[in-house]
Amino acid sequence: MTLDLNRRRLLGGGLSLGALTLLTGCDVSDDDAVQKVLASFSRWNDRVQAALFNGQKLAPTFPEAMAVKDFRYNAWYGPERAPRLDPAEYRLSLAGLIADRRPWTVEQLHALPQMSQITRHVCVEGWSMIGKWNGTPLATFLQRVGADTTAKYVGFECADGYYEGIDMATALHPQTIMAFGLSDETLPTKYGFPFKIRIPTKLGFKNPKFVTTIYVTNQQPRGFWTDRGYNWFSGI
User: I need a labelling partner for 28 at 20 to 30 A (CA). Which of 48, 115, 154, 167 fits?
Assistant: First the structure.
């Protein structure tokens, strides 16, 4: 993450570099000092967002007519590079504070009780889009496998090298789902087949695709973009 990008993030958040200098006394030409201050602000933002989060407050939902059929593709690589996971060979691995760690097949996952939601995906890049997602509440799955829901976090590892984690309150939120479908069709490869985690209370990068491992832990999981300067909580 470059200093220029951090300048833009500060200015977009309403804090100028001049204010940063006055508040901290650091020299903005000292990249290490600026990075430490930015990291401190980021941790503070995470704590505030976590304190404000309401596990029962729902994100807005929309009529089906507003759901986009041709949902926007988004990743750091082109759709031609999206992992193509064989449904016959795929296994979802479970780890950490989970009683039943037996792997799950695509067939078993699709047999879970499912719901649909029409919610807005909000990207940190500045765009948003409404889609219809079909899947199983993550809370239902965690209960099914005997996860310790008194633990602090749930983490995810993905076939494309992505990794992410969320707090347990978000994992148990009624709108957090394992999305197996988009627009009433099986989730296409480029959107994360066999499933993605759909979290309408979080920014888009907190919604991992191509999930291959779910684990429960009391240690805060790393995040792919958090490791590159974004806030870890990144939600409402």
Answer: 48
3 state SS of 131: strand
**Structural domain contains residue 235:** no
pTM: 0.80
Do the bridges between strand 115-122 and strand 128-137 make them parallel or antiparallel, or are there none, so unpaired? antiparallel
Q: Per DSSP, which regions of 11-152 are E strands?
A: 93-96, 115-122, 128-137
How many distinct structural domains can be found in the chain? 2
Q: With the CA atoms of 114, 117, 120 and 124 taken in that order, what torsion angle do they form, in degrees rounded to the nearest 10?
A: -20
Phi, psi of 153 (to 5 degrees): -140, 160
> What letter represents residue 53's amino acid?
F
pLDDT digits (tens, 9 = 90+) for 76-105: 999 999 999 999 999 999 999 999 999 999
Using CA atoms, how far residue 72 sits from 42, 63, 68, 69, 191, in Å, is 28, 19, 9, 9, 9
